[in-house]
Amino acid sequence: MSANEDQEMELEALRSIYEGDESFRELSPVSFQYRIGENGDPKAFLIEISWTETYPQTPPIISMNAFFNNTISSAVKQSILAKLQEAVEVNLGTAMTYTLFEYAKDNKDQFMENHQPVNSTIPISSIISVETPNTAPSSKKKEKKEQLSKAQKRKLADKTDHKGELPRGWNWVDVVKLSKTGSKEDE
């Protein structure tokens, strides 16, 4: 069989085996990801396997560069990849994607025994302390009174009396206008 026929058969087998498995993801017909461990498990990791054109006669490309693996130290990643490469050498020439995923699942605890979570993100407390000084000046700006132009001040002064109050009846409705429109409706 040619490499393409082997790949098509393995692709079909992977789709049927992992159908409905949330840990498995087909990125393309020649690239797959599998999450080893449950969601929320600090020792969970993600393996990505990509087939070359001549796979399975040549080894696939195995990667752990997914964002999901950011908390895993590079030493642990290298250790896992080295152990997976050993499994690749043993299975060279045969369909091995399923075998590699299962090997990783079976040996997860051994792979992650030296795992100490690496904190590659900024702690929330430092984000808060960085943002706190920036919010103080903006609140001062909000307290600042609005500046009016001369024309706006003049209009406001014309509406109010010398004490700054509006004259009595400024918002009253013209009763005469209402009575005229009301009488037309009555007829």
Radius of gyration (CA) equals 36 Å
CATH superfamily of the domain at 3-112: Ubiquitin Conjugating Enzyme
- Per the CATH scheme, the topology name of the domain at 3-112 is Ubiquitin Conjugating Enzyme
What proportion of the residues form beta strands (DSSP E)? 5-15%
Secondary structure category: alpha+beta
How confident is the prediction overall: mean pLDDT? 76
Please state the oligomeric state of the protein chains shown: single chain
Neighbour order of strands in the largest sheet = 1-2-3-4
Pfam families: RWD
InterPro entries: RWD_dom, RWDD4, UBQ-conjugating_enzyme/RWD
Region (Disordered): 129-167
Protein name: RWD domain-containing protein 4 isoform X2
Protein described:
It is a single chain. The chain has a domain at 3-112: Roll (Ubiquitin Conjugating Enzyme), CATH 3.10.110. The relative contact order is 0.09. The protein is an alpha+beta fold and 187 residues long. Mean pLDDT is 76; it is low at 120-140. The longest helix is centred in the last third of the chain and has 20 residues, at 124-143. The protein is built from 7 helices and 4 strands; from the N terminus they run H-E-E-E-E-H-H-H-H-H-H. Strand 2 (31-36) and strand 3 (45-50) form a beta hairpin. It is elongated. Residues 155-166 have a biased composition (Basic and acidic residues). It holds the Pfam family RWD. It comes from Enhydra lutris kenyoni (northern sea otter). Residues 9-111 form the RWD domain.
